[in-house]
Amino acid sequence: AFLDLKYTSIALPGIPELHIPLLSDIPVLGKLLFSYDVLVYGSLTLFVLVSFFLYKSRAGLILRGVGEAPKSAHALGYNVIGIRYLAVLFGGAMAGLGGVYLSVAYTPVWVEGMVAGRGWVSLALVVFATWRPLRVLFGAYLFGAITIVQFHIQGLGIDIPSQLLSMLPYLATILVLVVISRDLTAIRLNSPASLGITYHPENQ
Fold first, then answer.
1. What pTM did the predictor assign?
2. Dist CA 176 CA 122 (whole Å)
3. Which of 202, 143, 136, 133 is nearest to 175 (CA)?
4. Distance between CA 110 and CA 58 in Å, rounded?
């Protein structure tokens, strides 16, 4: 949409599956676990690297400190605004990578509205996971599994309106949010203390 609508519905070559030698030949499990494109394996690698960065590195500790107590981080000499900008840039890059996967690997064609609100679902996943990377991974796979289930139900010929099946992932997201909202204490304890609070270094 940013470039021109003339690119709408143009089929792309897509990304071929990356079959891991020997492992992809294992009956059932080979196709299930070891026959995906490079972006899938790259996302899992990113999950490990980001988790390590956040919880096992000094830079990750600084980043979390900026989110928890920016005044203290500023007092220690860290550029709070700069670090926050870098974090936002990284988050935007990851969102863009998700868009690449949708238009190049998931469905190798770009159409208007193909994201279908998945960005809001990703925000809901963060709340569901209470800002814990492993739970984010679990929530993402749960959402993906529900998305796939609707296609299998349609393939079985069960007489359920397609509109209702398309709603399943979003209904599941709303249900999860309703359930976890009953324990607001856990959300508050795990979310960054300064989340959504504007920081003005000139006031320090």
1. 0.78
2. 13
3. 143
4. 40
